[in-house]
Structures
1.
Amino acid sequence: MAAFLLRRLALLVPTLFFVSVLIFGLQQLLPGDPALVMAGDNADPTVIAFLRQKYHLDQPLPVRYGLWIEGVAHGDFGESMRLKEPVRDLILEKLPVTAELAGLAILIAIAIGVPAGILAAVKHDSAIDYGATMVALWGISTPNFWLGILLILLFSVTLGWLPASGFVPPTESLKQNLLTLIMPAFVLGNAIAAVMMRHTRSAMLQVMSADYVRTARAKGLGQVSVIIRHALRNALIPVVTLGALECGALLSGAVLTEQVFTIPGFGKLIVDAVFNRDYAVVQGVVLCTAFAYIALNLFADIAYALIDPRLRA
């Protein structure tokens, strides 16, 4: 297991290097000139030339990449052209918001999707199975922005139970923080729960017909013990994979949901940066997202070994 982890960690650096080359290269294909965007349409040519020199836009592409990657290696992602703030500070400000939202969404998805998938597999071809499948299809097909607006109308406008938008840090008020995040987290977790339910159901149906499950039943073990101790543990592998991928997708920015609920997370940051040609912010956010995906896949591999002892070899 230790050798496997060392090999995965050794692949981390070249993977991130390759991703950084793609990020920086594809970023240059965006139309428009960042210097013109910052200076304005009627700006003096001297001002435009100064901005290009300040942000190294007048340098060849390899030189600009070298300067950027050297700064990244020292923890410096550059400065936002639009906000005039270090990109590192922007990331450290927005990342905890999206990370908390993503964590709550995944918890909601697991709390709904996994039990529903187990129940649908155990009650295969019954009314419960068909009902869970219909609910899952509803969750997958419901647009996040539409569900978010309906929740705001019901719980904020009509009932007045929850705030309609905004974000309160947990350091200020934990209760208010959870109240502002519960609706957007449910909106995101609803779609993931539907997919997780289908994966759990499919994996459980395969495991329930395995020889060791039939042997456990033949030994006289109860239904709950057979399902939880023998079947579920081996059926969790695809669920763990799905959870890691979905969590990475949420960290990359749940753009529509953050816009609907006015949450200042990664989604709004990356959208504003793209529209304003803020190269440094786009590059920093995408690179952090790539690192998050790699780290989550590594954690998923570790979870595989903890769940299934056969994989530790």
2.
Amino acid sequence: MNDPLTKQLIDFGLSEKEAKIYLALLELELATVFEIAKQSGINRSSAYVVLEALMKKGFVGISDDKNVRRYLAASPETLLHSAKTAAKKQDDIKTGIESIIPDLKVLHKGTRGKPVVKVFEGVNGLINVFEDTLTCKEKVIRIISSVEKISKLLPPDYFFGYVKRRGEKRIKMHGIHPANEIARQLTNAKLLEYDIPVLIPKEKYKTPADMAIYDNKISYMSPERGGFGVIIESKEMAEVMKSVFDMAWEEAKRLSRTLNRK
């Protein structure tokens, strides 16, 4: 018996007895259980069991002779095909596991409660963030936005369609906006009667990126580099930002009154 070959077959996944019987059959070509047992050095009763196992794996077949049952080994190419199939399956499993690692980490006890961060790129990324706000269960979105910067990147009519769908879901908006032309037009238009937009001096307060706070989420949208959005999901962080926004909103309303008097 060739020990290196036996070892390789064991590494492949066969048991020692399976490897020895398969190699014995390769040498014998066509043989009875008695002949196989003698060639492999395995007792006859064990040889029967091992041969059945090899047949189930497709590595051993039987002859058409109905008088005397003889066995024959499948081509070594069968082993190679089986190894390739197993390797591909393992690669598919590995790829599948890699794809769900972020979700598994969220469920993991050690990471539970930690913020979940999602990043979206391009115009479609911005739309993803907008669409996510429509899942708001609290029915109130707190927004700080220049309006004009992001709206220029979005497809025509998307913004107004978004506002309409937000209205259908009865989701209110409390907004703080620098008093640019687009923000003034939207405020005067009163697209949704229960929205409360507040204008602040655009010269003093800059908003290079937009922010929305809703439920347990904080989202940021930037027009830079073709547009990108970030959603942070964290109950603690969202509660802090809601409190900060509410304080800023009260001051914004005071500034807005001063702005209107001017």
